[in-house]
């Protein structure tokens, strides 16, 4: 058995902005006979709880100054953090200077990111740029051979377990040092991004877990969550079923995106990032039935997302159909019980506070593309009717549903809808005529009387004519083609209403 060398520290420097778990940490350090040196509000919080603490000013011989900007930037502090006790010369220097070494440093930084997210500007943000904190964190991480550095309250338990086992190890200190350097790097990137406005972007993430493989079995893959952590699919809870795969995550993301495009209760069924069906209804179970009816063949083995908590009726509707993943804001106990009979079905619960992202990133060789998410839908009141009579209220509502739903379809995209449910979808074709043919073919008899949405303009009248021949009664599209007049004439000749939105919804 390998002999692990443990070192029990005798002195800790504690200076934290986030006071979570501070008192438990302080009591535990004291119980191990570890002297606590602390600053400002951290020292006051510990002292008020009856925990012995030495003020930093006692160590440095100087009171905090410049409104707290200078308090730990002193040789008596940094000498105690940086001294390499493996070297005799460092031990001698500490003794000659009257400096005591630290074996533990617990520091978390001013809440810069939270301050920016709160809407603060100018000097209010500047004051949340930590200087002494990162200096102590980096110094302790550099000297991990002698010092354990902890930057996250969720890691206090790890440190305390180490102390309970007899002290920290070289391995545990190195692990904590890696986390510390990642923490300061993320912090500095956030500050740099704020200063540079939109001329620089930064992205930090940490691994949650490895995946069995990537898109194909010969590709390795893992899921990471962004830092600071936001409520998203990457940190959703898998309540039951097999582990999520790479493809599961990709399809679940597309399904969630589609479902949350709608304000009404919505169900989206996705296969290979494309909808097999989308529907809304006040009754979520009815929405699922309508979405499933759109393309029952493709829905087999699909991924389902809802924008509401799944109840027993909806679970019953889903349970009879082979489904890979159901992702939702939550599941009632009755729904969870119904799903429990499907051992391989993955139930994924979105984190509280989930909202679709407002920024999208896509990697390309040598860099990334960054864009605002496509979350705006021009309401029907802003559309321009270019042919036909004004449709009924019901038809207009169906057109508005189709206009929102088509955004979730890969371009070139055509979506036929009846009421608030898709009945035929043509997606991902390299010309719009083929997308029209595919949508009509999948709708079958349901195409007659349906409405159609096109994610971009019709470059020629030929695609529209396919929809007209199938019996489509109204169309919504962006407009803007050089041949708009030709397309409008075809709609007018058929006597159908057609609307221009002035916006498109490409999805590549």
Secondary-structure map:
Layout: E1 6-7, E2 11-16, H1 22-31, E3 35-38, H2 40-48, E4 54-55, H3 56-60, H4 75-82, H5 88-97, E5 104-108, H6 112-117, H7 123-126, H8 132-142, E6 148-150, H9 156-164, E7 168-169, H10 170-196, E8 204-211, E9 221-227, E10 237-240, H11 246-259, E11 266-271, E12 274-280, H12 284-294, H13 296-299, E13 302-306, H14 312-319, E14 323-328, H15 333-339, E15 346-349, E16 359-364, E17 367-372, E18 384-387, H16 393-405, E19 414-418, E20 421-426, H17 432-443, E21 451-454, H18 462-469, E22 474-477, H19 484-494, E23 497-500
Parallel strand pairs: 2-3, 2-5, 3-4, 5-6, 13-14, 14-15, 21-22, 22-23
Antiparallel strand pairs: 1-7, 8-9, 10-15, 11-12, 11-13, 16-17, 18-23, 19-20, 19-21
How many angstroms does the end-to-end distance come to?
Answer: 56 Å
- CATH homology-level superfamily of the largest domain: Methylglyoxal synthase-like domain
CATH topology of the largest domain: Rossmann fold
Residues in β-strands, percent: 15-25%
Structural class: alpha/beta
User: The biggest beta sheet, please?
Assistant: 6 strands, mixed
From the alpha carbons, calculate the radius of gyration and give it in angstroms.
30 Å
How many domains? The number is 3
Q: In percent, how helical is the residue content?
A: 25-40%
Q: Number of DSSP helices? A: 19
Number of strands: 23
Detail the poorly predicted runs. Answer: none
Question: Architecture of the largest domain in CATH?
Answer: 3-Layer(aba) Sandwich
Shape: elongated
Structure report:
- By secondary structure, the protein is an alpha/beta fold.
- It folds into 3 domains: 7-196, Methylglyoxal synthase-like domain (Rossmann fold, 3-Layer(aba) Sandwich), CATH 3.40.50; 237-349, AICAR transformylase, duplication domain (Cytidine Deaminase, domain 2); 382-500, AICAR transformylase, duplication domain (Cytidine Deaminase, domain 2, 3-Layer(aba) Sandwich).
- Helices cover 37% and strands 22% of the residues.
- The chain has 19 helices and 23 strands.
- The strands form 6 sheets. It has a 6-stranded mixed beta sheet, sandwiched between helices.
- A hairpin with a 2-residue loop joins strand 19 and strand 20 (421-426).
- Helix 8 (132-142) packs antiparallel against helix 10, helix 17 runs parallel beside helix 18 (462-469) and helix 18 packs parallel to helix 19 (484-494).
- The longest helix has 27 residues, at 170-196.
- It is elongated, with a radius of gyration of 30 Å.
- The two termini are 56 Å apart.
- The model has no long low-confidence stretch (mean pLDDT 89).
